[in-house]
Amino acid sequence: MTQPPPARSGLPALSAADASELRETLLEVCSSPAWAAAVAASRPWRDRGDLLTANAKAMAELSADDLRDAMAGHARIGTPKPGDAVSEREQAGVRGADPSVLDELRSANAAYEAKFGHVFLICATGRTADGMLAALRERYPNDAATEAETVRGELRKINEIRIDQLLDAPQ
């Protein structure tokens, strides 16, 4: 009896995925269809660095509408999406936070959203609720153009973490 071929994992599996499967996988990393298309078009990737470079290049080229698409895939800071393991893992720093800090975070989020028209986006991995609140307050005075570029950088960092997790996940 012959054994099935070993399953490919990480970068080889991602590189070999058919277009539809790759698109769905990339949209789990970043909800911008334009980003997913740009990253997919950059295949083949020789190594992790190539894929991370494709992420940075694609992120740098997103339009304002594409950035909104990318932000739409993210939960409001301080309120991870219930049942969404990625959202809960990325915002683990809010678990157990003082309720007054969470109340302040909700208020600051509301003011930010009223000013900028979108959720406050930050790479929350490894940050505490206090740290995210401080960052929100620090960024609130930004003008729209400055904040859009800050968001672009935060999305790039989030995507890098998600790509690393995707490549390192057991298949």
UniProtKB/TrEMBL annotation:
Gene3D superfamilies linked: Oxo-4-hydroxy-4-carboxy-5-ureidoimidazoline decarboxylase
Record-linked SUPFAM superfamilies: UraD-Like
Reactions listed under catalytic activity: 5-hydroxy-2-oxo-4-ureido-2,5-dihydro-1H-imidazole-5-carboxylate + H(+) = (S)-allantoin + CO2
Record-level Gene Ontology MF annotations: 2-oxo-4-hydroxy-4-carboxy-5-ureidoimidazoline decarboxylase activity
Enzyme class: lyase
Listed pathway(s): Purine metabolism; urate degradation; (S)-allantoin from urate: step 3/3
Keywords assigned by UniProt, alphabetized: Decarboxylase, Lyase, Purine metabolism
EC number: 4.1.1.97
Boundaries of every Oxo-4-hydroxy-4-carboxy-5-ureidoimidazoline decarboxylase domain copy: 16-163
InterPro entries referenced in this protein's UniProt entry, alphabetically: OHCU_decarboxylase, OHCU_decarboxylase-2, OHCU_decarboxylase_sf
Region Disordered, annotated ranges: 74-96
Entries under PANTHER family matching the protein: 2-OXO-4-HYDROXY-4-CARBOXY-5-UREIDOIMIDAZOLINE DECARBOXYLASE-RELATED
Name this polypeptide is given: 2-oxo-4-hydroxy-4-carboxy-5-ureidoimidazoline decarboxylase
Gene designation per UniProt: uraD
